[in-house]
Amino acid sequence: MAKHHTASGEIFDLAPLASGLKAARTRAIVKTDAFEAVRLVAHAGADIKAHKVDGPITLHCLEGRVQVNLPGKSLELSAAKWVYLEGGVPHSIKAIEDSSLLLTIVFAAKANETDPAEKNLPAPVREPQTEDELDMLLEEGLEETFPASDPVAVTNPSARVGSTSHDTPKDETSRGPATRDRRT
User: Fold this and answer.
1) What's the maximum distance between 2 C-alpha atoms anywhere in the chain?
2) 160 torsion bin: left (phi>0), alpha (psi -120 to 50), beta (else)
3) Partner of 17 at 20 to 30 A CA spacing, among 23, 35, 134, 147?
4) What's the CA gap between 34 and 20, in Å, rounded?
């Protein structure tokens, strides 16, 4: 039976497995033609032999500790630590203790072959070259996301930080005669 992969828009819980880690196994979270995400489980003492992947990868340690061996150096990843590796970089992993990691892989050849028009995706956008270009794009994005009729407001009502008069309740005695309820 095929294993369930997480669908687009579906939430996957990456919380530490804690006491369940001992019995846990590596699990593919999602796999497409261009990308794969895996919850990699490595039990204490386990070795993943040296290998390389054509596309870039990331390793995010969710719990435990592992040693990542690269050409000329070794890194130790512990909970909440993350590392990025270019495609083609040989690496091996040794679990120092029971560990789980989020492994992401971009399949370089497949990613480059994908035509955005075939999947109804927007064409790639050219990166801004100057600070002015970046500022302009940021302003345009904010205006599209938060139009002037719906301005952005950051509030913390409990501290009365950033609150405005329309979101701050007033008691009857603080209202002037023009705003007092005329029904009383």
Assistant:
1) 82
2) left
3) 35
4) 31
* Residue 165 identity: S
Give the pair of three-digit tokens for residue 111: 């990613």
Q: Which residues contact 16 (CB under 8 A, 6 or more apart)?
A: 62, 63, 79, 100
Of 104, 103, 101, 105, the C-alpha closest to 16 is 101
For the chain, how are helix, strand and coil distributed in percent, rounded to 5?
Answer: 20, 30, 50
Spacing of C-alpha 48 from chain mean position: 25
| Backbone angles phi and psi of 77, in degrees to 5 | -105, 130
Q: What is the pTM of this model?
A: 0.60
Condensed to tens digits (0 to 9), the pLDDT of residues 64-99 reads 999 999 999 999 999 999 999 999 999 999 999 999
